[in-house]
Design a protein that fits this description.
The complex is a heterodimer.
Chain A (H helix, E strand, L loop, with lengths): L2 H16 L4 H24 L2 H18 L9 H24 L9 H7 L9 H10 L3 H11 L5 H8 L3 H20 L1
Chain B lengths: L2 H9 L23 H16 L14 H12 L12 H39 L2 H9 L8 H9 L4 H11 L8
The chains are: A mainly alpha, B mainly alpha.
């Protein structure tokens, strides 16, 4: 499904959502359409399934509450990624305050969560990569995940994160170098 | 891997440029299948709670019940009820302001009085003729030529050293000798 086709579907679903009679059906279709992408976007940041689930539910509850007022300045996909990213970062901020740990830089908080995962194997490259990503500052981690895993174009990412494309490219390149260094250890 | 992402990693000479490394996290079985229903039930619950009537107390209390309650309790305890005095916060603030004004006023009065004494002594000495002072210093206790000056000097408790200091500050008569 191309981006344009996807956008057209979103517009149709949005029209259906604004109609009281078809709202719930449209909502269900929208959740089904975006749930996996958003879930993995969140899960890669917070690691633990239960936390990702809580955040994802908040994202969709916000969608239910505010979608009728969505102005379509950006695509629905961008809007949902924005909500998911903001919800995730604010969850991390809250966790940082309550756990009194810094989530920036080389703190071990997320690395510990990774090693506590079922099936964790430090010899497997996919786990090592997750450990490397966990050492990145949180905003750089978002950029790396959106680019590497979601393969999001920089212009789209610029709208999601409200940051210039140049700054995002620089951030991604720094992140790649740091990940490489970690993997070489 | 998307060609654009792959090319970018190749330009960075990154080992990540090969085949994409997957996510190792295990998903929960049927997690996504039930997601829309799960969200819908949370929203429905929120809406149900939001639809509850406001927490209004349906019971009524007889008029004046709480005002009369202390008196009734005391009466039942076998003691005459004392009429309590209620001091409002406004009254308390006014009383505090009055105390502050009183303290400031008394302080200002005491200060002014003390300063006033000093000024009046200097003023009195300025009014006394040098010859009278000379005579006083030469003949301690002798009547002064100027009765009014004598009246001034007798009234105030001034030491001879203080008078000498005054004359040092204000100038001695050149004819004066001791």
């Amino acid at each position: 499904m191309g981006v344009n086709e996807s956008r057209e579907n979103d517009v149709e679903l949005l029209v259906a959502f604004r109609n009281e009679a078809t709202r719930e059906v449209a909502f269900t279709r929208l959740v089904r359409k975006y749930q996996e992408r958003l879930y993995w976007h969140i899960r890669r940041m917070v690691v633990v399934h239960e936390d990702a689930d809580d955040i994802l539910q908040n994202v969709f509850i916000k969608m239910w509450k505010y979608l009728a007022d969505f102005r379509q300045d950006s695509g629905l996909y961008t809007w949902l990624y924005r909500i998911a990213t903001n919800e995730t970062l604010s969850w991390m901020d809250t966790r940082k305050r309550f756990a009194a740990v810094s989530l920036d830089g080389n703190e071990s908080y997320f690395e510990d969560r990774i090693t506590a995962q079922k099936d964790f194997d430090p010899n497997k490259i996919e786990w090592k990569l997750q450990q490397a990503i966990a050492t990145l500052p949180e905003k750089q981690r978002v950029v790396f995940n959106l680019r590497y895993y979601d393969e999001m174009p920089y212009d789209e990412m610029s709208r999601v994160l409200d940051t210039s494309e140049g700054a995002l490219k620089a951030s991604y390149h720094h992140a790649v170098k740091k990940v490489e260094e970690f993997l070489k250890k | 891997m998307n060609e654009e992402v792959k090319k970018e990693l190749e330009e960075l000479k990154s080992p990540l440029a090969g085949s994409k490394i997957g996510m190792p996290f295990g998903g929960q079985q049927d997690y996504f299948a039930g997601m829309p229903e799960k969200i819908a039930s949370i929203i429905a619950e929120e809406q149900t709670n939001a639809g509850l009537p406001m927490a209004v107390n349906p019971y009524v209390v007889p008029v004046g019940y709480f005002e009369e309650l202390p008196a009734r309790v005391l009466a039942n305890a076998g003691r005459p009820a004392r009429k309590g005095v209620t001091i409002t916060f406004r009254q308390l603030r006014l009383a505090a302001a009055a105390v502050v004004l009183l303290v400031v006023g008394v302080g200002a009065f005491v200060r002014t009085t003390q300063m006033g004494t000093g000024i009046s002594e200097n003023a009195i000495l300025a009014n006394v003729a040098d010859k009278d002072i000379r005579a006083y210093l030469g003949n301690a206790g002798a009547p002064l030529a100027d009765a009014s000056a004598g009246r001034y000097i007798d009234k105030i408790d001034v030491k001879a050293e203080d008078i000498e200091k005054y004359l040092d500050d204000n100038g001695w008569d050149t004819e004066m000798t001791f």
